Give the backbone structure.
Amino acid sequence: MAKSPHPPGVDALASTEPAWLALPAGTILARVYYTRSRHALAWNAFRHAGPVDARWDHHPPNASGEPTPQRRSIYYCATDAKTCLAECFQVTRRIDRAYQAPWLVVFELAQSVTLVNLREDFATRMGASMAIHSGSRARARAWARALYEAFPQAQGILYDSSMNSGAPAVALNDRAEALEIFPTHPLLHRALADDAMVDMLKTAAAGLGYGLR
């Protein structure tokens, strides 16, 4: 059997007891996001257009395969800024402080969220494997759609960052969006182009073996 097969039917997946993880209110999360791009959003906004090439988009694709605005939404974040940088700049392996005007935000969850935990043996028990974190993104998106439909109480996915030593990363869905999870003010909110960010970005880039521009 392939290490990263297609998901089974929703009923079959729903018959498997998932591994749950609750992130309580007060959990600190980080996100790198673009303020000038095709899908530019505010720091506290979920992306409704999809699916794009991101791994855990659970949006149903349209006939042409183009991202379309829809009710389902996604919000990618992680438990530390280094993981966000590793994931966001993985294609070029260079942290570009200017292109598409990226910003870093760090905030505390205002509400608890319940996640399907794919960092442990459930990834194998559900019929996939840990290869789901680094294999075909299209295949992972199919699993994300199946998980969303099989477990209506799931407000997101906890997964391994394949770019930062398996560090925890989070993909929140529209059920979390409905909970008003964001605080009024984040703990940190700065453009990567801000001079105050240079030392932190140099340290992260060196640790990841990325360049810095």
